[in-house]
Amino acid sequence: MKAIVLVLVFFAFCGLFPNGYGRNVTSRPAVVNIGAIFSFDSTIGKVAKIAIAEAVKDVNANSSILHGTKLVVTMHSSNCSGFTGMAEALRFMEIDTVAIIGPQSSVVAHIISHVVNELRVPLLSFAATDPTLNSLQFPFFVRTTQSDLYQMAAIAELVDYYGWKQVTAIFIDDDYGRNGIAALSDKLAERRCKISYKVGIPPDTDFSQGDIMDILVKVALMESRVVVLHVNPNLGFRTFSVAKYLGMMGNGYVWIATDWLSSYLDSFSPLSSETMNTMQGVLTLRHYTPDSDRKKSFFSRWSKMTGGSLGLNAYGLYAYDSVWLVAHAIDAFLDQGGVISFSKDPRLISAEGGELHLDAMNIFDSGTFLLKNILKSDLIGLTGPLKFDSDRSLILPAYDIINVIGTGYRRIGYWSNYSGLSTVPPETLYMRPPNRSSANQHLYSVIWPGDTVLKPRGWVFPNNGKQLRVGVPIRVSFKEFVTRVPGTDMFKGFCVDVFTAAVSLLPYAVPYQFIPFGNGKENPSYTELVNLITTGFFDAAIGDIAIVTNRTKIVDFTQPYVASGLVVVAPFRKLKSGSWSFLRPFSPLMWTVTGCFFIVIGTVVWILEHRINDEFRGPPKRQIITVLWFSLSTLFFSHRENTLSTLGRFVLLIWLFVVLIINSSYTASLTSILTVQQLFSPISGIESLKEGDEPIGYQVGSFVEHYLSEELGISKSRLVALGSPEAYAKALKIGPKKKGGVAAVVDELAYVEHFLSSQCTYRIVGQEFTKSGWGFAFPRDSPLAVDMSTAILALSESGDLQRIHDKWLMHSSCSSDTTELESNRLELKSFWGLFLICGLACFLALCIYFLQIIRQLNRDDPTECTSPVQGSSHSGRIHRLLSLMDEKKDMSRQKNKRKVERSFSESDKDAELGRNTKRKGMEINSSS
């Protein structure tokens, strides 16, 4: 018996001391210690201190959780210091702490996370929002609030919603500020927006007002007027004060503060009127927490506890929920048989004579087990669902969007990671399918800085003395479009006048200088000119720059101010009327099909009339002549043969309608050919050029060479570079047979129209085969491109654009000749519908006719259908069918029948007349 007792004691001893030595703790201890570390004197800390204490009190008063185990919390202040925070975290491990709530500072969280990783104690932070605090580096760090990654996504979506492309970022230069702005930059890039200028403020408290003023002066010199302020409350309010002094809280500016401002407003409202006046029109974000009865009850209780001296912000709610989250996880941990035990770490044993007492630090043996229970939590708190996704982030992130107005603020909408911006609470949207389309994004109106409801443009031209470097090509041909004034850096021409006129319409001054591009000996490459914008050498480029696909991929263009696609120019000659001009109205195929239909119609009518019409009977030679004569005479409506059958008349009626249309069309086309001078060119358009092998001319420096070779597959050996209108005329005059000559020139419509205004022996052949235009080029996402587009539209609507065009480009020495090259012949495709109807009518008439013949054949000889002999019955039946079709139909029976019927009807009439006469005679006698 004693041996059995000793064995049981041994196993119990091993169970209580799994690592050889440790502190003996029962599976359901009377007390469980948790720690809390944050800055007691901060905005968040003041609220969190009360919220955590109340949460512990509520947990201990609730008999449904922990079941008799008391939760004890020990709070230490970190004073927002990483060193102090680490020291205080180590102190927790002297009292066997199973979890730590906090810290609020991302800087302190980075340091403490290393400590809890070693000691295996879960760290639940209700306010550290740095996105880089991830689970891979810090597995024991659990964020019980939303990461700044979602807050920055909300700001990026807000910027995109209002159409801004650039923002200026002012941030506190620590882990919280730097990493938050890095997340903002990534989220803006996803929406083709960017941070154009960012500046960090040191977290030191001795940063003076003068230093802040220096920063804001630099910000005021930037073009962006959208400022994102990601700092702490102390620096934030000082920044607003200086900005107000510098006039940066007026019209045109947009200020977006992160959730530090909403937390302060929730905690200490109402603020003084002086403070509120410095931030009128500011937008800020606040963690969204859905309304619930439990939340309303806690707010009421909070007001009684604080007497209204301290408001409850969202981080206070997260701190309260963090305690309940730990309590539920510990309860589940104990229910699953978890044992709270701590062990010594040999690495922490202090050296002999040391005073740090590292040997007092204990490792939580079941820390990983408790951490798993925390991450598996699924409960409802004051802030909503407390559940983690695969990234260990709280599900359903959402924010309120707040506009500071007057002595308070108002909510203008919501942002949720589920559906973006809306004026509907997020929990309502969760019941619908996600919809992030731009049409579904809505916010209420905003009172912007300067007390205006007009949305700020979000940028101005920078007032720092910098001039736009505008690249202008030095053209050696077509100088009416753009050319350099000899001996100066000035330019003139159509494109230059459009640019200067558009700039004059902008609501702000735009200093610029023209920078020439090219060697002045040949037209420069416009693709190289556009590429220099992407390198930053030019801030813009103007001139006759075509808007083509490969250029729009690297720069932004304005609204086209000239529509100009590619066309083909070729020489032409005048056609004179010849002896065979009467054949030109119809194409050969049209003549062929028309002739065939004359024969077909004659044959069909002969078949339908042959049995009953003597005019379609007789010897074979006579019948053939009759068919040909009848069909051809319908062309002039002079056929003398009568049609007796209904089917024949039906076919003839439709055919005469077709002949009428063909006659009218032929007459009109022939009249045009004989009375109007026609132009002819052997080239009909770009397709004929592709199929041939003649040389093709193009303008030096344009995109035409790339388009013809890469897009259309024309060999580069066929392409001839031409540098001026005179070169065009010379090459076209020489022709493709001689060296240096071309069959045609392919160029943009604007150049071609100017070329043809003085060259009267060439014409545009075919259709315009590309659609493009000319525009001014700017860097990607440049707001100046948008404003210049608006100015160009204003020029077009006012008529100034047309007047500039007439000033430079309306010079024509050729007489107007609007006749197109080689007027199109009448093709079969213009009449195929008529021929189809006529063909169907013939087919239908023949089908009905043959059905009548077969029916009559069966009626005249019914015995053949039932005869068992099949040998020669088929050939006999076919012979009988052909004989029936050829024999003259006996119409005399029908005529005699009609006569008999007519005679019977006349006899009846005479008899009736006699009876009436006799009756009248009798009546006369009786009266006498």
TrEMBL record:
<dbReference type="InterPro" id="IPR001320">
    <property type="entry name" value="Iontro_rcpt_C"/>
</dbReference>
<feature type="domain" description="Ionotropic glutamate receptor C-terminal">
    <location>
        <begin position="469"/>
        <end position="811"/>
    </location>
</feature>
<dbReference type="InterPro" id="IPR015683">
    <property type="entry name" value="Ionotropic_Glu_rcpt"/>
</dbReference>
<keyword id="KW-0325">Glycoprotein</keyword>
<dbReference type="InterPro" id="IPR001828">
    <property type="entry name" value="ANF_lig-bd_rcpt"/>
</dbReference>
<dbReference type="Pfam" id="PF01094">
    <property type="entry name" value="ANF_receptor"/>
</dbReference>
<dbReference type="InterPro" id="IPR000337">
    <property type="entry name" value="GPCR_3"/>
</dbReference>
<feature type="region of interest" description="Disordered">
    <location>
        <begin position="885"/>
        <end position="928"/>
    </location>
</feature>
<keyword id="KW-0675">Receptor</keyword>
<dbReference type="InterPro" id="IPR028082">
    <property type="entry name" value="Peripla_BP_I"/>
</dbReference>
<keyword id="KW-1133">Transmembrane helix</keyword>
<feature type="transmembrane region" description="Helical">
    <location>
        <begin position="650"/>
        <end position="674"/>
    </location>
</feature>
<dbReference type="GO" id="GO:0004930">
    <property type="term" value="F:G protein-coupled receptor activity"/>
</dbReference>
<dbReference type="GO" id="GO:0005886">
    <property type="term" value="C:plasma membrane"/>
</dbReference>
<feature type="transmembrane region" description="Helical">
    <location>
        <begin position="831"/>
        <end position="851"/>
    </location>
</feature>
<keyword id="KW-0732">Signal</keyword>
<keyword id="KW-1015">Disulfide bond</keyword>
<feature type="compositionally biased region" description="Basic and acidic residues">
    <location>
        <begin position="901"/>
        <end position="915"/>
    </location>
</feature>
<feature type="disulfide bond">
    <location>
        <begin position="760"/>
        <end position="814"/>
    </location>
</feature>
<keyword id="KW-0472">Membrane</keyword>
<dbReference type="GO" id="GO:1901701">
    <property type="term" value="P:cellular response to oxygen-containing compound"/>
</dbReference>
<keyword id="KW-0812">Transmembrane</keyword>
<dbReference type="Pfam" id="PF00060">
    <property type="entry name" value="Lig_chan"/>
</dbReference>
<comment type="function">
    <text>Glutamate-gated receptor that probably acts as non-selective cation channel.</text>
</comment>
<dbReference type="GO" id="GO:0015276">
    <property type="term" value="F:ligand-gated monoatomic ion channel activity"/>
</dbReference>
<keyword id="KW-0813">Transport</keyword>
<dbReference type="InterPro" id="IPR019594">
    <property type="entry name" value="Glu/Gly-bd"/>
</dbReference>
<keyword id="KW-0407">Ion channel</keyword>
<dbReference type="Pfam" id="PF10613">
    <property type="entry name" value="Lig_chan-Glu_bd"/>
</dbReference>
<dbReference type="InterPro" id="IPR044440">
    <property type="entry name" value="GABAb_receptor_plant_PBP1"/>
</dbReference>
<feature type="transmembrane region" description="Helical">
    <location>
        <begin position="589"/>
        <end position="608"/>
    </location>
</feature>
<feature type="signal peptide">
    <location>
        <begin position="1"/>
        <end position="22"/>
    </location>
</feature>
<protein>
    <recommendedName>
        <fullName>Glutamate receptor</fullName>
    </recommendedName>
</protein>
<keyword id="KW-0406">Ion transport</keyword>
<comment type="similarity">
    <text>Belongs to the glutamate-gated ion channel (TC 1.A.10.1) family.</text>
</comment>
<dbReference type="GO" id="GO:0038023">
    <property type="term" value="F:signaling receptor activity"/>
</dbReference>
<dbReference type="InterPro" id="IPR017103">
    <property type="entry name" value="Iontropic_Glu_rcpt_pln"/>
</dbReference>
<dbReference type="GO" id="GO:0009611">
    <property type="term" value="P:response to wounding"/>
</dbReference>
<keyword id="KW-1071">Ligand-gated ion channel</keyword>
